[in-house]
Amino acid sequence: MLKALTRLMFLFQVYIIDVTDGQHRWTVKHRYSDFHDLHEKLTAEKKVDRGLLPPKKILGKNSKSLVERRQKELELYLQTLLQQFPQATPTPLANFLHFYLYEINGITAALAEELFHKGEQLLQAGEVFSLRPLQLYSVTQQLRLAKPTCCNGDAKTDLGHILDFTCRLRYLKISGTRGPVGTSNIQESTLPFDLSFFKSLLQIEISECSSHQIQGLPSLRSSLATLSIHRSTETMMSVLVPEASEFSQWEPEGVESGCPVTAVIPVWRNLTTLDMSHNCISTIDGSVKLIPKVEFLDLSYNQLSSVENLQHLYNLVHVDLSYNSLRALEAAHTRLGNIKTLSLAGNQLDRLTGLTKLYSLVNLDLSHNQLSQLEEIKNIGSLPCLEKLNLSSNPMCIIPDYRTKVLAQFGDRAAEVCLDSKVTTEKELDTVEVLKAIQKAKEVKDRMSSSDKKVRRGSGLNRRCCILAVHGLCPACFLRCL
């Protein structure tokens, strides 16, 4: 349990304590003076035998034999203390061994005491409260044990302070860690935790967790308005419908189905914002049927190659599909509806034919794509509400007079369009007018040229008919023979 590390350059010893609690292990570093301070507290508060701690030595204190002997004596000292208090570890000893960082009882006691002092103030301020998966795991485990809610007799550490706080909390952030926690072997991504004791949450943000360790999310369907989850899942289904794996066929409540179903799943009644960016999602699956009121949807930084099932979200206003793997977006109006903001930045789009009927679109971000042909802008040039367009970092941006040529595609609305976050200048508008005049002249010329060809074609046919008539042939029969 106890090892020693001697650092002669500083003329003191640091003892490394290996602590084991079930499958969890961690290390704590202390000097002899820390042991002395601990012993003073225990003799005063718990009437521990004052002679239990090995005495301090002055002469030869850095000798190898003394260090090894003291290591064994201090290890025996700690083992004796733990055996003396088998039910509840005294607070000074628990703090000495860093129970408040790594051990279930110590973690919940520390959290309860923090909320005893500051919980009411935090609730009144309406601030976002942050918790670690390890803390939530500890609370979850404590609730499952048939033990008193206060183990060490200190009312400030009663589990009730946590439950009272979580029942009323509205804004929660859960942030996990990659790799072990601190000096321990604890991997937070393997620790299951329950969210069902949060009764009033309006907003929750979860990051660096596994969707498989998150339990109790369905209990938040009636209250949650904003759900954000990052670096935690490969599917939307595992977050929005975690119970789907239990049923072969399911449908959201309120939907009539012609097929037999084994379960009817409640919808997220108040969810208006869903942020599932920075995950590994490759498909927009049928779970979106359970979020009918969502207005803001962020699926950026995922692995989407197509857009599906969003036609079920009739209230969508803002959609972020940036930094995925989209190469085309055909018939976008049938998939996205009457949205106002659409971000497609950072994909591999090289054409815009599918965006022609997004008539409600106000803000469109197409930066960092593969658009090279100015003709593609014609597909969005007639959108009546488009005000902000971002085409930066596309191949077409190197074309001479790129801005004015793009703005010219919007005709009389060129002055209303903000291109690449830059307001259109009067000089650019003058150039646009010249380009429009040139284009109009070209169109007139093309029409006239086309008319001339038709006239010439018609007159040539008349001449041939006359020639055929002279030779006694029927023009209609001759043409059919041809």
UniProtKB/TrEMBL annotation:
Every PX domain range: 1-104
Keyword Repeat on entry: yes
Gene3D superfamilies for this protein: Phox-like domain, Ribonuclease Inhibitor
Stretches of the chain forming a coiled coil according to its record: none
Signal peptide, first to last residue: 1-22
InterPro entries (alphabetical): Leu-rich_rpt, Leu-rich_rpt_4, Leu-rich_rpt_typical-subtyp, LRR_dom_sf, PX_dom, PX_dom_sf
Record's keyword annotation contains Signal: yes
Assigned GO CC terms: cytoplasm
Keywords from the named record: Leucine-rich repeat, Repeat, Signal
PROSITE patterns found in the cross-reference section: LRR, PX
A GO MF label: phosphatidylinositol binding
Name of the protein in question: PX domain-containing protein
Organism: Salarias fasciatus (Jewelled blenny)
